[in-house]
Design a protein that fits this description.
This protein is mainly α. About 60% of the residues lie in helices and about 5% in strands. The protein is built from 11 helices and 5 strands. Strand 2, helix 1 (about 30-35) and strand 3 form a beta-alpha-beta unit. Helix 5 (about 130-140) runs antiparallel to helix 7 and helix 7 (about 160-190) packs antiparallel against helix 8 (about 200-220). The radius of gyration is 25 Å and the shape is elongated.
């Protein structure tokens, strides 16, 4: 698509508009071959509303920013600054189609969540002995598939939302690292299970990270609300169940000195749900 300036002595500008599942880099070669002047390329994940009308508005805006006179923009849809500003604020945008990487991250996250439930809720890995640390390490690493699925699915918007999501993801990675470190220690010294503090610290970091990531996903409005709240619920559940544990179970209040396994293990089911919420989201514009 091209827009010709009013002054025919000046070179025309080419505007390349990727498809909904495109990327601006796909037009690098045509841009280098374009001999008519400047080129404008829209990023399908950073330019807001990419409906037909939304793309038309962005083309007009980018062409005007490049100095193309408005009178030569032909029959392109007029710029609606109010509507465009709304889309920027809401950060509504298209979701990319599910890629193999997204599917893999979703599957890994589901496996990690179900394994966490089996470990904490059902104590299924207890008979493994020292091999438990190996299985638990794999389980912890699998949980990283959950934030990865949201990133790969394009559920995170621009600006402060992206910064918040990056911070949250970093905290999740630190939390998983704390878990892995604890499991390495337990492999060498199983007796340290009741003295080490790395697993509870890691759990707190992961919960806080999911809170931040969930807030960013919800504010980005690229997923339907039931799916967008999934990481937020994961983050909120851990402190909520901890409060219940302290009030009703810890300290032998129920005849068992430890936490309630099913209540704690349910956290794993929420991790699995969050992975599915990201990986199975409908392609297209997020929240209308």
């Amino acid at each position: 698509m091209s827009a010709h300036p009013e002054d025919r002595s000046s070179p025309p500008a080419a505007v390349f508009v990727p498809g909904l599942a495109g990327h601006p880099a796909e037009f690098d070669a045509p841009a280098r071959l374009w001999a008519g002047g400047a080129t404008l390329r829209l990023d399908p994940f950073d330019d807001g509303d990419l409906s037909v009308a939304g793309q038309a508005r962005r083309v007009v805006e980018r062409a005007l920013d490049a100095g193309t006179p408005r009178t030569r923009l032909g029959r392109t849809t007029p710029v609606n600054r109010t509507t465009t500003a709304h889309h920027r604020r809401s950060d509504a945008g298209p979701l990319p189609g599910p890629s193999r990487a997204t599917t893999a991250a979703t599957a890994v996250g589901v496996v990690g969540g179900l394994a966490l439930f089996a470990d904490l809720g059902l104590h299924a890995f207890g008979p493994l002995g020292r091999s438990y640390s190996v299985v638990a390490t794999v389980m912890a690493l699998c949980l990283l598939g959950v934030p990865a699925a949201f990133w790969l699915r394009g559920a995170v918007g621009r600006g402060w939302r992206r910064g918040l999501a990056v911070t949250g993801t970093a905290l999740i990675v630190l939390g998983v690292a704390a878990w892995v470190t604890a499991f390495v220690i337990l492999f060498g010294d199983p007796g340290a299970a009741f003295t080490q503090r790395l697993t509870p610290a890691g759990s707190a970091l992961m919960a806080l990270g999911m809170l931040l990531l969930g807030t960013a996903v919800l504010a980005s409005r690229r997923l339907s609300r039931p799916r967008a709240v999934a990481p937020l619920v994961v983050g909120l559940y851990f402190p909520a169940q901890l409060a219940v544990q302290l009030a009703s179970f810890l300290g032998g209040r129920d005849g068992d000195p430890g936490p309630n396994g099913l209540l704690l293990g349910a956290w794993g089911l929420l991790w699995a749900w969050a992975a599915l919420a990201a990986g199975t989201a409908r392609t297209g514009l997020g929240r209308p």
